[in-house]
Amino acid sequence: MKVPVSYSFRNLWTRRLTTILTAGGMALVVFVFAAILMLAEGLQKTLVDTGSWDNVVLIRKGSQSEVQSGIERLQASIIETQPEVAAGADGRRMLAKEVVVLISLPKRGTDKPSNVIIRGVSEESMAMRPQVKLVEGRMPRPSSSEIIAGESVSRRFTGAGIGETLRFGMRDWTVVGIFDAGSTGFSSEIWGDADQLMQAFRRPVYSSVIFKLRDASGFDAFKTRVESDPRLTVEAKRETRFYADQSEVMAKFLRILGMSLTIIFSLGAVIGAMITMYAAVANRTAEIGTLRALGFQRRSILGAFLMEALLLGFIGGAVGLFFASFLQLLTISTLNFQTFSELAFSFTLTVEIVWQALLFSLVMGFVGGVLPALQASRMKIVDALRTS
Amino acid sequence: MTDPVTACDGQGPPVDLENQPVIVEVRNVNKAYLRGNHVIPVLQEINFDIRAGEFLALMGPSGSGKSTLLNLIAGIDKVDSGTIVIGGVDITALDETELAHWRATNVGFIFQFYNLIPVLTAFENVELPLQLTGLSRSERREHVEMALRVVNLSHRMDHYPSQLSGGEQQRVAIARAVVTDPTILVADEPTGDLDRVSAKEIMSLMCRLSRESGKTIIMVTHDPKAAEAAQVIRHLDKGSLNDAHP
Ligand SMILES: Nc1ncnc2c1ncn2[C@@H]1O[C@H](COP(=O)(O)OP(=O)(O)OP(=O)(O)O)[C@@H](O)[C@H]1O
Ligand SMILES: [Mg+2]
Prior knowledge:
The structure holds two protein chains of two kinds.
Chain A: H1 5-14, H2 16-49, E1 55-60, H3 73-80, E2 95-106, E3 113-121, H4 124-128, E4 133-137, E5 146-150, H5 151-156, E6 165-168, E7 171-180, E8 189-193, H6 194-200, E9 208-212, H7 219-228, E10 234-238, H8 239-283, H9 285-294, H10 298-325, E11 331-336, E12 341-346, H11 351-378, H12 381-385
Parallel strand pairs in A: 3-8, 5-7
Antiparallel strand pairs in A: 1-9, 1-10, 2-3, 2-9, 4-7, 5-8, 6-7, 11-12
Chain B: E1 22-35, E2 38-51, E3 55-59, H1 66-74, E4 81-86, E5 89-90, H2 96-106, E6 107-110, H3 122-127, H4 137-150, H5 166-178, E7 184-188, H6 196-211, E8 216-220, H7 224-227, E9 232-237, E10 240-241
Parallel strand pairs in B: 3-8, 3-9, 6-7, 7-8
Antiparallel strand pairs in B: 1-2, 1-4, 4-5, 9-10
């Protein structure tokens, strides 16, 4: 038979101050824990959402990102004629030969430079990325020095606002439009005409070729054929996979960093919980003796004190999560280690993170409470009663 | 018991013990404690019976082993040798889990310092032993209300122990002890922490439990006034029963 849960809960309530302080320590740890998971999640989501399932990205074999890649014009033409490439409404092939250049631009306010991706696009580029929408201004005229900027770029970089002018590649470029790409990585890019950019940067080759599959399930066959074609030195990936791979390293790094940090912090919180619970056991020794005398088993005492520690952990977890959830309102920018460009993203709270954080807080409560609870359950009844 | 102002004044006659069955048999009980390397003998060859409905007072000097003997009978301590049979069950043969079950249904405890659970209300304190039975919520409520009526504290059932006087707390504790209708009630110095007026109230209540409800009570006390409520008084001296005193 169990000691009622209300018994454990009210004991926590009775020593509110201690409970708040102990749970507060745990809340802090859970906050950090959740924050880092949310960061990794936000980063990954941003990069994964950047891609579409039925788009294929081709880059040079062995290159990690578009920035390092190079695809010669001849190879690009061969890819263009593959039967898997979908045709648009007007009969044109849904394929874009793009060039990606990394440049350094001063940030608004501080004037500190930071890297930005400039993507040279062709007419189909926009149509193949339904997430990307022009929200202000107009599209650049073909063969002009006009560019459009992602919302987060235009907000954060000097000269990237609509009507403003940016200087790079020894030319002035006028921002004629702002596009919204949701929470995807495109929001952190500047787009212009591919040929113009290749001229300006004196690059003879494309960085990547992107096309829409006629039939989304035809990818595997296409990949096998194209990658073994002796005329081509390319690697084909679904666009979703392409961006997910890019986020992998960073997300993993964040998760490992987060886990190490929280494990170290959690030691402190666990010791705090342990001290609190040992004090609770010492203060309630006569009470423990009484419960046992009344007929409660040792395991019920163990259960009651463990329940108390778990509740303590749960309170800490819930409070930590509550505060961590406000992080979703923040947008942060960081360096994408794969491309060394700036990437803006938000902390993202998922149901999975909520469960993980709560489980983590319960584990802290359990670890902190198990020794005191065992001590409580091991007392001899007469000894416990003598401490009135 | 001829004192005109005893706790049992105005109550019915004591139970006629002659016709009552023996409910507690203590046989050749020995108990010693180990303190460091020293063996401290506490009880030697204790033998006596308690009849159903008997109100027994255990008296004797401090350190004579009264509490130890009471704890052995209540099943919260283990004999070194000997047997204690209560209601036909040899409790010295039970393992710890069985003993806990046995206590839950057979023993009602009354402590010197009441030992109520501070975070539970009077009602919940009395309900606590019933959590160990299979009773439904409404059945438990009925039992608790009845027990609180017996100790005349129905109106205080939502109060916490800290909101009650010592005497009231002890009355709640008595309600908790009788709520399961146990085979025996054990009380260690039930009036030891109370003023004279409250002590008399408690003894009067215990006397009523004995005479009107026929409870079997074993009470350790230093207080001769308290012992007057009992029907049988046994004296312990240096670990042996000494019944030379009537
Ligand atoms: N758990 C224990 N460990 C060691 N010694 C003990 C323990 N319990 C009791 N004793 C010793 O056993 C002896 C009898 O103790 P007990 O508590 O039974 O006496 P008592 O008659 O109830 O005394 P009092 O009237 O002071 O309560 C004492 O000498 C006491 O010190
Ligand atoms: Mg004693």
